[in-house]
Amino acid sequence: MTLALSDIHLRDPFVLPVPAEGKYYLYGTIGETCWKGKPRGFDVYVSTDLTAWEGPHPAFRPDPDFWSDFNYWAPEVHEWQGRYYMFATFKADGRCRGTQTLVADSPLGPFRPLGDGPLTPRDWECLDGTFYVDRHGEPWMVFCHEWVQVQDGEICAVRLSRELDRPVSEPVLLFRASEAPWAEGIRGGANYVTDGPFLYRAGTGELLLLWSSFSDGGYTIGCARQAEGDINGPWVQDAEPLYKRDGGHGMVFCTLQGELRLAIHTPNDSPNERPIFIPVEERDGHLSAFPKEEVM
């Protein structure tokens, strides 16, 4: 079946371009089971032009003994050493939410879990792990330590094994949500959300970290930057957000024609959220989004 983006009910969209195939692979949180219900796993959609999509194809279906039974959230897929690795968030009753890696030989899957559970600390409520390779070729995962546990949500990083199946360092705190001048607290103002981190290296060498929280425009994407390109920081928050029209959990990808796009879901209310792709321009280490030219 061929679908338009507006037909695809996903949150937290992630696009993997595969130039050798001339294809794009789209993953995300399945909207119907995001907040309640038994998730079936994760699906993937395939396109050659970002407009017409085929799917859904089953990318991951859990075995009966898989440890998690709800909150299947925010799958990302990255190529690493010739294989494809999914970073996805899971939870179960009595266990903290966390991000685990899964692996497959194809972007279509089937993906199978790696390791013995989440890469995030077992006593931390965490979500939205994303993959990053530093200038020394070392793999990292950047993730959110949730506001539901710490009130002022945190963005943290942990170095991974070469197999991406376990952490090999203690978590490093990169920054807290309240450090962004545009961020607003929720539930009386005392709680600050961190969602959806994504790393992008600018042409200037600066390392940019996109992340989502809430502002006076609703769900919002901001940007933190590290001038030397060092994952450990210090990180400086841009004063103005990248996108503040009640859309978020963004990632940047390059089209097969060499153009930048920002993938987000908007609006942030269920069941109306849908993925969209917004043209992006990089200039002097800064990203600018052009939402009037949204690709639906």
UniProtKB/TrEMBL annotation:
- Plastid found in the keyword field: no
Q: Which UniProt keywords apply?
A: Glycosidase, Hydrolase
Per its record, what are the GO molecular function terms? hydrolase activity, hydrolyzing O-glycosyl compounds
A Pfam family assignment: Glyco_hydro_43
Note whether Hydrolase occurs among the keywords: yes
**Belongs to which family?**
Belongs to the glycosyl hydrolase 43 family.
Kindly give the PANTHER family that the UniProt entry links to this protein.
Answer: ARABINAN ENDO-1,5-ALPHA-L-ARABINOSIDASE, ARABINAN ENDO-1,5-ALPHA-L-ARABINOSIDASE A-RELATED
Annotated protein name in UniProt: Glycoside hydrolase family 43 protein
User: Taxonomy-wise, where does this protein's organism fall, top ranks first?
Assistant: Bacteria, Bacillati, Bacillota, Bacilli, Bacillales
